[in-house]
Amino acid sequence: MAIFRDIQGTLQPFWVTLRTLFKKPVTYQYPEQKRTPFPRYRARIVLTRDPDGGERCVACHLCSAACPVDCISMQAAEAPDGRRYAAWFRINFARCIYCGLCTEACPTLAIQMSADYEFCKRDPLSFVYEKEDLLIADGGKDSTYDFYRHAGIGVVNPRGKGDDEFGPVDPKSLMP
Ligand code: SF4
Ligand code: SF4
Known about the structure:
single chain, alpha+beta, Alpha-Beta Plaits, three-stranded antiparallel beta sheet, two-stranded antiparallel ribbon, binds iron/sulfur cluster
């Protein structure tokens, strides 16, 4: 009956309040007492390096294409050995919504989200981070991964000689 459902609907919230009324409150005295974030916590973005210390980012623009708020921009450049890199790389954290789509799109694991949540500033312009502010001296969550050892673009290994890579195929050899 509707009357019993209404009474139950009215009393249930009181019961929830009553149940938690005498529990010990969990209060962190921030900033003196800091909370340890969960391992997969998504906060400040960083650019990581491969195991040899080189920049992982190959300036492919996939992260900026995936970003729903268009807060990543960069310019691609190429080293004499053929290795691509970002001449400059910029993230406007004032617009970032920490969705993680850029990290999902990145083929080299260069862009990753760290657990650094202490990221509050008054000046909006100070949220614009350049490559120097983003690059860390570590591989982040997968420190052994090296994109160039798998991609086989002739930088670390000759073409077709990378790990897990088949040699080049002559298309004419496939014709009937
Ligand atoms: S976390 Fe989301 S909003 Fe922030 S830079 Fe990456 S894709 Fe853009
Ligand atoms: S961070 Fe990753 S997705 Fe973005 S440009 Fe660099 S390699 Fe490409």
